[in-house]
Model the fold of this input.
Amino acid sequence: MTGQPTSQCFHRRICRVAPARLVTASVPNAFDFFSNTDHSQLSLIGNITLYSSKNDHGTLLHDEQAAALDALRSINGRINMAAPVSRLPPELLARIFAYYAKDDMIWRKKKPGIGWISVTHVCRRWRHVALGDSRLWSHIFLPLNTMLLEEFISRSKVSPLSVSWISGYTYSTPWRPNPWPTELALTSLVRVERLHFDNFDGDAEGLYSLLSSPAPILEEAQILGLSIPKNVFGGSAPNLRHLSIRESMHFPWGSGALSSIVSLNIEYSLDLRPPRPSQADVMKALHKMPFLEQLSLIRCLPKSFATALADTDTFIPEPPIFAPARLQKLTLSGEVQECIGFFHHTSFPDSGVRLDLTCITLDHAINFQPLVRSLSVACGSTSGPFTCFNFEAHSRRTFKFQAKRASDEGGDDDAEPSVALNFVWRASASDGWNAVDLMQAVCLALSVTHLTDLEVDIDEFPEEYGGDDQAFTPAVWANALGPAKELVRIAIYGSAAHSFCPVLLLTTPDGHSWQEREAMEPASDDDQDTTTLFFPQLRWLSMFPTDWMHLYPGEDLHLYEFLPLLLRLRDEGRAPRVSLEVATCSQALEDVLKPLVVKLNVITEDEDGDDGVDSEDGDDAVEG
Amino acid sequence: MPTIVSVDDSTVPGEGSSRLLLLVSSDNKHIVVEEDIMSRSRFISKQVEGFEATSQRHAILLPFSSFVLNKVIEYCSHYRGYYLLEDDPDAAPPGRSPVREWDQEFLDVDRNMLLRIIKAAHYLEIKSLVGSCARAIADMIRGKTTEEMREILGVENDFTPEEEHSPSSKCTG
Done:
């Protein structure tokens, strides 16, 4: 593969000594010369100085050195040819370089990731392969000096370019910085497939020009902290699928370059609070995106949504304007009223949408029912098609409500949960959130009858609910989760576990739904604790009270009460295959429980007070 | 194209619920392996299709040693039935995608063995294994100086002075 290096000086030197013999000897190059076993030729070199004049002595020695180096390089070339790595076909070598280059770009976040170019300095073959792979050079991290930029563009040949701006990096080399992006805007934007500008601090005028140019093959653009021209991409970006504009002061809602968008992420600046768009602009723009699958609108929902919904309790749903047939994921962040307004104008597809909702409000005592109701309207029924739901409300404290696919995170081998609910309460002090109402309302919106995975993490409760373990009483749990007959996994963290234990203890295996039980035995206030729940699909149960001290010794009692139920179910041949995870368990109880469950994990508190895990392998346990 | 030789029926146990293949390494070791295991190899799959067309049993001769072949079979066995995202740098999502933990352990072999495995994976068209090996080799040379890279992969500097001072050599960032 590698050609033998020619040695002009070697030939020159031989010619000077014995031109006639050189021609007849036909020495093709230095390597052949040195590797030849004809010692008479080698002796020729040794005799050269005899024919040289004194003045030429130094020159001849240099020539001799050059010849030797040439010969060495030639031998090195043969060594390389024999090296195992040289047996790799060029495409494999190029693949290795591609991984190096790709990771290099990621690792050097504050520097253009071009350290990988050093592979072109290793040997001739590596350089040949690297220079011959145009895709390697199509990832351009800016700013680059002019020479490098030209080299990259030239070597990338006709490959589509991926251009990224690395914010805050300054070259230490004296090379003239490239007048990017003006230059590239005029010459190469037509070749740009991916554009990523993060806090651009270069030639703003040039960038504006760049972003105003047509982008015929542009597929993805991520722009952070920049002004976007109204005529973005000249109104022509027919292949633009993914657009993310973050920390922006403006978004060109009326642009004609958005018709092919599949994923749109718009986030207005938090600090500068730019003016919000009009309701008509937003809805009109969204309506023109028939391929939209992922939509994220952060701090850019129209204010008019909120003002139009002054009285949310008596709202009359308007006909939906935005009906994204392919929508799979929706992320909204804004004031509660703005989100409600958005739902009023939206009709979700039946195929299901993952919803991440962040509501910002200073009204701590807000009633969430209108929000849930607007969601129901958007969904077309009270059983929303949401496969995942993530709700956060921010005020002085954070309230978080999540639902997600457990299968996204691995999940239990025994189950393939389709809907998961993650309820997290992060409150440092009591305040006016009506947590119970919210939980019930959102459970309704989620259609909890199909809930399979529940995770609840509650540390503290508002004082109006009586403090720690009175907010989520067994009756509240029963009300909220009664219909959830498909629950497969339950994990309860924090003080909520105190109230959840009795719910499980009172579980009956009679197969009646909670509503049926209610109808048969209406529970009086005094009789709340007898409310029963049954989760026939339950396979995994975890209970971790946050405050370990609360566990001793009382919690054991709950488990002891749980035990008869398990024993009875086993005797009836209907014992659930439950994996039980508890925060504490006496040895005696552990011995009894182990044969009854698939797996028993006991989490113990170590000497330092940190959580430690003492896992009991369930392999030897007897399945129920 | 691989060499395909006819084999005796007794050599290849077949007719079972899971079809078996006979792979013959360059050191003439015969290795019987379930077809399912090797289905990750597009090369093998194509060969098997060819067998079905001729309704004859064949052994597949492979141009690498049994040691290498066994490593490849170990990989295929581990990921039997799993869907693996193809490790095409162009197709992969942005961000660093480290070698999978098991792969890292599996590929914790000497340099020459690693090169043999990637070559065999390339021959057998097992894209995920090629990707893992390529990443492992890239990790070996990442952040190293040119001299260190040469030392790691056993190559020498064969540039002429002119080549060493070419413009591309200045592109080091």
User: Anything to note?
Assistant: The mean pLDDT of chain A is 64. The two ends of chain A are 68 Å apart (CA to CA).
